[in-house]
Design brief:
The chain is mainly beta and 182 residues long. It has one domain. It contains 1 helix and 14 strands. Strands 2, 3, 4, 7, 8, 10 and 11 form a 7-stranded mixed beta sheet that branches. Strands 9-12-13-14 form a 4-stranded antiparallel beta sheet, with no helix packed on it. The two termini are 29 Å apart. The relative contact order is 0.17.
């Protein structure tokens, strides 16, 4: 569910590199939105004499701000964390997610088509900005799942650890289950 690493692209102007990621992949590969990335979060790796730039999630001490013209920028900020999650859909199906904790999260939803027109399935993802701490979200997926669970609740911690409880529809189900199993 957690997208751990994303390759960055860049544009050069005035002898500077401006890094960005195109988030999502909708109709014919069009991105849902573009996110510009501050240089402090860019990581490099040299492989076969090629320099690869990437961004690793979750991003600690960061936030996303929107400029006056609507451009999204990932920049440093204290006591904030940015997650990137993607719920894979079933074959020829769809998926959805909803953040349940914390309630004050900024959520930027995007879609990832499994084929150019989305006929093979449409997965939903989100970039989530929260105060420092873990996130909990419930998810649902449809289509041919081949034994995979259709619903569940996932908790992701700032160190990148994930905990998923499958076949659960609501947070109240987890609370009731924990009381019955004590």
């Amino acid at each position: 569910m957690l997208v751990r690493e994303v390759n960055l692209k860049f544009k050069e102007a005035e002898w500077k590199k401006f890094f960005y990621i195109d988030v999502g992949s909708e109709d014919h590969g069009r991105p849902s939105f573009r996110l510009w990335v501050n240089q402090k979060f860019v990581q490099e790796e040299i492989k076969d004499n090629q320099i690869k730039h990437y961004l690793r999630f979750p991003v600690l001490n960061a936030e996303i701000v929107k400029t006056e013209k609507g451009t999204l920028v990932l920049r440093p900020a204290s006591k904030r964390i940015v997650y990137n999650v993607l719920v894979p859909c079933g074959y020829r199906g769809s998926s959805s997610l909803e953040v349940v904790d914390p309630m004050i999260a900024q959520v930027y939803l995007y879609e990832k088509y499994s084929s150019p027109r989305g006929n093979l399935g449409i997965s939903q993802g989100a970039i989530i900005v929260t105060p420092f701490g873990s996130i909990k979200f419930k998810w649902e997926r449809k289509g041919r799942l081949y034994g995979e669970s259709p619903t569940g609740i996932t908790t992701i911690y700032p160190i990148g650890r994930e905990e998923t409880i499958d076949w659960v529809e609501d947070v109240e189900d987890i609370k009731e289950l924990s009381q019955l199993l004590e």
